[in-house]
Design brief:
By secondary structure, the protein is an all-beta fold. 0% of the residues lie in helices and 38% in strands. The chain has strands at 2-6, 9-14, 16-19, 34-36, 54-59, 62-64.
Amino acid sequence: MIVDHGDGISTLYGHMSGIEVASGDTIKRGDRLGFVGNTGFAISLNGGDGSHLHLEIREDNIPVDPAIYLP
C-alpha cells in the first residue's frame, strides 16, 4: 500500500495481512490502514512467528532515511 501525503512525499507499507482502506479514501492520523502480516522473509526470534511490517518513506518515489522525519 502506498499513501500519498502530497508534495512528493509518500509512505509504502508492505507485507500486510489485510488492508482496511480503499484506493482514494481520505485517511487521517490514527486511522487503521491494515494489519501486520508475515509474508516475505523475516527471521523469527524467541518463538515469534515472523510478523512484521515493511515501511518506506519516499520523496519523489525514492526511498529516504526515515530518521530525517523523527523528532
